[in-house]
Design goal:
Helices cover 48% and strands 20% of the residues. It is of the alpha/beta class and 213 residues long. The structure holds ribulose-5-phosphate. Belongs to the HPS/KGPDC family. HPS subfamily.
């Protein structure tokens, strides 16, 4: 089970400082959509250059021109690139094929998908590397989470790794771990804390504990 740190509300120097604090506890660092919208793929390039040992995910949330967008994110140094589950099947296929060609991975984001079970099964057949259930900020504000959706995708996905994102924090982690996703994505649950290093370490320790039990 891997831990991904999501960085959404920072500029590049702040991202680098933050990663330095927690790099011992994380497996993947995500340059979030707001960061890439502000700073461009330069954010991916600079973070990968500073932390070559970490996997870097570019949360570009592709909707179209998928192979082209994957190629650009990969050229900037992304190891994993995101596409929205609501994209056309031909876009998903294009993203998957391009990523395979370049030795990269595709994470498909299920945000706003209504029929999670059907779409997850389709995405699995289309060759997604990760399928991620995700409660975005706007639904988090309404008190929603993706815990039930994680169980749904776990029951239908045969090949892809499963992931969960959206408002996860130390207090809610045990419920997430119970479903045994391959990847847990935490943003504010770490970045909003005064002692980010200690929070990330506690989260990683809890994840490791569940693997050895
Ligand atoms: O993709 C995102 C928002 O669209 C975030 O990166 C993701 O939701 C994780 O951040 P947080 O744990 O703060 O919700």
């Amino acid at each position: 089970m891997k831990l991904q740190l999501a960085l959404d509300l920072v500029d590049i120097p702040q991202a680098i400082e933050l990663i330095k604090e927690v790099e011992g506890s994380i497996d993947i660092v995500e340059l979030g959509t707001p960061v890439i919208n502000q700073e461009g793929l330069k954010a991916v390039r600079e973070v990968k250059a500073a932390f070559p040992h970490l996997e870097v995910l570019a949360d570009v949330k592709i909707m179209d021109a998928a192979a082209y967008e994957v190629g650009n994110a990969a050229a900037a140094g992304a190891d994993i690139v995101t596409i929205l589950a609501q994209a056309e099947d031909s876009s998903i296929k294009g993203a998957v094929e391009e990523a395979k060609k370049l030795g990269k991975k595709i994470l498909v984001d299920m945000i706003a998908v209504k029929d999670i079970e059907t779409r997850a099964a389709e995405l699995d057949v289309l060759g997604a590397d990760y399928i991620c259930v995700h409660t975005g900020y706007d639904l988090q504000a309404e008190g929603k989470d993706s815990f039930a959706d994680l169980h749904t995708i776990k029951s239908v996905v045969k090949n892809a790794k499963t992931a969960i994102a959206g408002g996860i924090k130390l207090e809610t982690l045990p419920e997430v771990i119970k479903a045994q996703p391959d990847l847990i994505i935490v943003g504010g649950g770490i970045t909003s804390k005064d002692d980010k290093q200690s929070e990330a370490a506690k989260i990683k320790a809890l994840m490791n504990e569940s693997v050895t039990v």
